[in-house]
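Schema walk-through. Below, the input block comes first and the output block second. Nothing else is stored per chain. Lengths vary across the set, and this one has 373 residues.
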Amino acid sequence: MGGPVAPAELEVRLTTLLELPARIAGLSGAARDRADRLLEVRVVNGRTDPPPELVPWLVATFGSLEAVRQQVVIKVSNPATLDATLFAPLRARRPIDGPPPGNDLAAQIAASEGDPFCHPTSGTPAETMGRVRGARVVTGANAALADVHHAVLVFDTHDPLAFDGDLVADVLRTGRVWAERARAEDPDAVNYLLIWNCLWRAGGSIVHGHAQALLGSGRHYAQVDRLRRDVAAYAEAWRGGDLVEDIVAVHRSLGLAIELADGVTLLANLTPIKERELLVVGTAGMDETDERFVDGLGRTLVAYRDRLGVRSFNLALWRPPLADADGWGLVPPIARIVDRGDPFHRPSDIGAMELYATPVVGSDPYEVIEALR
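--- output ---
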């Protein structure tokens, strides 16, 4: 990743999330005020009493008996958004019941060549406005619509992991051209969402590289609209405070941010929805096709694959409606990216806790950000 890191006075880097309470306590002035408004951190200790028969398996699986007998869970919450995460480090070492290691992902991807997206003009429906052709992607209508306007952006290259910064840029720009054309046909449709589900583990039903674009009317997509509501409530509660700007500042002061470009910051999210979640955050009024945002997101995705070894991920681009609308002035473009784990693991990474309670995560944001510096 390029670009400077945080200013020297904020460049204290931690090695573990366990040090987060101490780091917050060490802040002062505006930085401490922001942290107090936006973070609640609790470190709790759990204990177990394993039977002797289980000890050899526990030691082999988790490294030591004491690691299982005395366990630490870090609870991080954001009172302004109600985002929260339970960090349980030992869960990253759980045994996974599934196929044996050594599954050849490259061979699986190669074996899927010939799927409908390998011939997008005959393998996907066209839209009434026709197809949009980018430099390395082409659009088609999603055969199973999730909204009145729902496109697939099919990559020229079959391998979904064979992307680079130029392809990411082409996806952003082609998706936006598609959205503007769809809006020209349907002026009420202004709520634009770009998503990328990479491989089956992330919900991709077709292996061939592709992203999706949706455009709807009425309220924005629920989680994006929730952000607008939270931004407005925060501004009212804190005398015009900028929620997103303050979230970026808190992560920066705690050593969890990388400045990708002027006005574009990468965050290792302190309240991730699941493992290794990153946020690429622009500034209010910036467009997601701005060269700074495009380049920052492209470099981030390449590093996600190459430095962290992520093979299956979800990406969503959040942005305000395409038409001017009240309440969106402080909402910048934000790309959220999350690791979905080993494509060959049988258990889902999403369970009842993630669906109905608080996400449980095993990865440490400090390890994530250090790998990307």
